[in-house]
Backbone:
């Protein structure tokens, strides 16, 4: 998870970042063997003026090379500092 955190911090400079590994909830699922099931919650000014799809694309771009290889599933909550709750 250190690589994932570093990649997101480099690309998006989040003011808040939480990464949870939910893999234990997916034991027995066919994809459980191929990588982690992660939940990412981040707050970044980089998301200002962007749609939810554009925000997700930024996260996936930041994690290029890791998704598919080390990450099987990714649940993303991406907010701006103004949307932070």
Residues:
């Amino acid at each position: 998870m250190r690589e994932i955190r570093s990649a997101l911090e480099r690309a998006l400079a989040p003011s808040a970042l939480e990464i949870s590994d939910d893999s234990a909830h997916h034991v027995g699922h066919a994809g459980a063997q191929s990588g982690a099931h992660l939940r990412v919650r981040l707050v970044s000014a980089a998301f200002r003026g962007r749609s939810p799809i554009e925000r997700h694309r930024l996260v996936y771009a930041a994690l290029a090379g890791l998704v598919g290889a080390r990450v099987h599933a990714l649940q993303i909550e991406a907010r701006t500092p103004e949307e932070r709750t």
Notes: The domain at 2-83 is CATH 3.30.300.90 (GMP Synthetase; Chain A, domain 3).
